[in-house]
Specification:
The protein starts with 7 loop residues before the first helix and ends in a 7-residue tail after the last strand. The strands form five sheets. A four-stranded antiparallel β-sheet has the order 1-2-3-4, covered by helices on one side. The protein has a three-stranded antiparallel β-sheet with strand order 9-10-11. The chain has four domains: 8-78, Nuclear Transport Factor 2, Chain: A (Roll); 112-176 and 197-220, no CATH class; 224-286, no CATH class; 324-359, no CATH class. It contains eight helices and 13 strands. The longest helix has 13 residues, at 8-20. Mean pLDDT is 73; it is low at 124-190. β12 (343-346) and β13 form a beta hairpin. It is an alpha+beta fold. Residues 99-118, 125-205 are annotated as: Disordered. Residues 157-180 have a biased composition (Low complexity). Residues 185-194 have a biased composition (Acidic residues). InterPro entries: DUF3027 (IPR021391).
Length: 359
């Protein structure tokens, strides 16, 4: 138990050494700040390896009546020059597309900024007693909305909500309708001057936009999602900076017969390669991408000459290697010489062939 009546700096150092577990890790006093209410914060330099710029903080409370110091807390705190580890990043933010295999599934967050609700048409519910029309006219009709139709509401006559219809028409770029003046006369304003007609969208225009942009899915890409995809594709291995583009001899995918353009905004920059001999077959490529399998690149002229490359292993020639001297070489030469003279050697006995019995 430390002596609470001792000098506060000495007491704070003793507490810092006790927290650090070694006296070598506690340096000199670098700061002393009054925190109010008789509380003082003492800071000591940290000399532990790997903790450059950190400080030991010991907070003491002084009881004026008893003239005693009480330890509130002690900790190791970083300064602005402290050496710190990198900020922790959640695993899903650290994950790269190349880290996933074909059997992995991470799903899509409901609040993913790349997604927004798609278009859903809502219809009035059919009642069994046939009173739906009367109830709708009185504003009391019940309506049903299919699952996923949270971005559009039904009107009493069973048509789609004009707000959603106008949004879809804005995508399609359609502008039709009539003008109305302040006194109810079309084409005139209150002072007799003509005003631009407000945009009124018909159901046919909405249906055309839904079909053209395939908006009938539950969710579709937001402008942010399309921009991120375009940037990723254009800067990837199927963009203009790919190595294969250099072998295309200036022929871009936009002029290739195997290029299948995309629809919508992405179709202004990208398409899909349909050439089975191309390394980009079945992949999204930019219009200024290219490869050596372009439809306008003529194949090399056929030639009857066969250019044989040097084989990796030459088995048509024999390499004569000088035999190295061995200790048993003299014995082998003697055996070869005796065999050539008609002498057979077996089990250590030399027998002349002329002495062998004949049949």
């Amino acid at each position: 138990m430390p002596d609470t009546t001792m000098d506060p700096i000495a007491l704070a150092r003793e507490i810092a050494i006790d927290t650090a577990e070694t006296a070598e890790s506690v340096g000199d006093l670098v700061a002393q700040a009054e925190a109010g209410d008789h509380v003082t914060d003492f800071r000591f330099a940290c000399l532990a390896k790997g903790y450059e710029g950190w400080q030991w903080s010991v907070t003491l409370y002084h009881d004026d009546e008893l003239d005693r110091w009480t330890v509130n807390e002690s900790s190791l705190l970083p300064t602005d020059e402290a050496l710190r580890p990198p900020a922790w990043i959640p695993w899903k933010d650290r994950l790269e597309p190349t880290d996933l295999s074909v059997t992995d599934s991470i799903g899509t967050d409901p609040d993913d900024p790349r997604m927004e609700p798609g278009f859903r048409r809502t219809v009035a519910a059919d009642t069994a007693d046939g009173d739906a029309a009367d109830g709708a006219a009185a504003g009391e009709g019940d309506h049903e909305t299919p699952a996923g139709a949270d971005n559009e509401t039904a009107t009493p006559d069973g048509t789609t909500d004009m707000a959603s219809s106008a949004d879809a028409a804005a995508v399609a770029g359609t502008d039709t309708g009539t003008e109305a003046s302040a006194d109810g006369e079309p084409g005139e304003s209150g002072d007799g001057e003509a005003e631009p007609a407000p945009a009124v969208t018909s159901e046919e225009d909405v249906d055309d936009a839904v079909r053209a942009f395939d908006l009938s899915r539950r969710h579709v890409l937001t402008p942010l999602g399309r921009a991120q995809a375009a940037k990723r594709w254009y800067e990837g291995p199927h963009g203009p900076k790919a190595l294969s583009t250099k072998t295309a001899a200036g022929n871009a995918c936009a002029d290739c017969g195997f290029f299948v353009p995309l629809t919508g905004e992405l179709g202004a920059m990208f398409g899909v390669c349909a050439n089975k001999w191309s390394p980009d077959d079945g992949r999204v490529v930019s219009m200024d991408h290219g490869c050596g399998e372009h439809s306008e690149i003529e194949p090399p002229e056929p030639t009857p000459l066969w250019v044989q490359s040097k084989p990796a292993y030459d088995d048509l020639h024999i390499d004569i290697v000088e035999q190295l001297s061995r200790e048993e070489l003299a014995q082998i030469e003697l055996i070869e010489r005796l065999t050539a003279d008609g002498i057979e050697i077996g089990r250590g006995v030399i027998v002349l062939r002329s002495q062998l019995p004949r049949d």
